[in-house]
Amino acid sequence: MIKIPEWAFEFHGHRCPAMPIGYRAGLTAMEKLGVKRASNKELYLICENGPAHATACFLDGVMVATGCTYGKGNVEKKNYGKNAITLIDLKNKKEVRITMNPEFQKKGLNSEFVQLRKKGVAPKDIPPDVLNPMLENILKADENDLFIVGEVNDSDFKEIKGTFNWHECSICSEIVFENTARMVDGKPVCIPCFENK
Description:
Blueprint: H1 6-12, H2 18-33, E1 43-47, H3 58-66, E2 75-77, E3 84-89, E4 94-100, H4 102-109, H5 112-118, H6 128-140, H7 143-146, E5 147-149, E6 153-154, E7 166-168, E8 175-177, E9 182-184, E10 187-189, H8 191-195
Parallel strand pairs: 1-2
Antiparallel strand pairs: 1-3, 3-4, 4-5, 4-6, 7-8, 9-10
Helix pairs in contact: 2-3
């Protein structure tokens, strides 16, 4: 059975089924690519998850497993509303796409856990006798029952380099990095000020 570090649940904020599924998806992708968790920007994650849907917690699990984070700038969210990821090994220029097995996902979406969530019960208030068997099932399930694993393919992803160059917005005086600054009458402006000028 796969073990999830307790800090993963603390980071996520509650126990639920989607975060551990994301964790397993991240582990599966790393195994297929033959890579370890990113400590810097060795990996890049494209997640097809989306806002405000029942299994959005999936992404936190993937980030915990892979080490890809918004803070490091190696996570991209496509907002397709799917529990699917593409993990890219930037050093070896390889990638793999992992998506949830629809049959496994349908069972979860029809579970008592989801029925309680639909009624407005917060994840932290779901009874352990409902949640714990789901978590155990997710952690014990065969990878092929959980996921559809794509082939490892060559990747033509172009890494986006970060910048240390900055400007002071000529309107609000806040610091803005040059890759997002706009120029108005030859002066740098941040996006919010540009949109409200």
